[in-house]
Amino acid sequence: MKKYLFPVGLWLLFACIAVTLWLTLDNPFYFFNFLYIGTCLAVGVALYIKKLKYARTAVQFAVGLYMLVYLGILSRENMQIEGFWYYLFLGVFEAAVIHYVIAKILGPLFFGRGWCGYACWTAMVLDLLPYQTPRRPRKRIGFIRYFVFAGSLLFVGSLFLLRVPGMETILFWSFLIGNALYYAVGIGLALALKDNRAFCKYICPITVFLKPASYFALVRVKTDTAKCVSCGKCKKVCPMDVDMTDPTRKRANGTDCILCFRCVEECPRGALHL
Ligand code: SF4
Ligand code: SF4
Known about the structure:
This protein is mainly alpha-helical. It contains 14 helices and two strands. It binds iron/sulfur cluster (2 copies).
């Protein structure tokens, strides 16, 4: 039973968030929203522990499709980074601001880049492509993310400065167009660089928030150097090029870990664990 403590703890964390937001914001939507997401994540992790092969993919689709289709398209809430800036500038603590604070700014201090591995609706499609084990070496073009990040801030800031009318509608269309672009660029890059997660490594603006917080993540894959025989299998299968042979937080690309546990599955010595 001890091995199920993590999914239970995860579910309790989301249940606490759900109840707290429901009561403080007097809006039952947050209760159902976070309870649904927490339940998907906890059940997915529990199924993974039971060695169900597609558990992570199932969670990614359950959460990703909910956010993309229900929240983004049907409820017309821009859950992308432009939506975050928009609600932030409006000065309201709701929708995308809450989503960002929990999934991408404070949450990663606890669960690292779990968002990228279990909830992102862009990555849920990219993970289906054929290059799960990337071609190496990594390109040195990660700076692009800062331009995308600044571009999103400039775009929304300009709408406010110029007092453009109909911002809600503009934000809805930017969500649709932005997502279409993300998919096109993500799939194109994955095929060109033979790396499913190339978009996550070089383009995604969210990583500007995610990477620094992930450095301090409580939940992370640890390396038992006494068991490790430096065979390099973990490095070989990692979709994010993390050097798991280094046990420290400074390991190469350590802040890119998406907690997919492929390295843990592949290690012949059982040297990797949470
Ligand atoms: S293979 Fe291991 S180090 Fe690489 S992203 Fe997955 S969990 Fe993280
Ligand atoms: S797969 Fe295991 S034994 Fe091999 S290098 Fe990685 S941690 Fe060490």
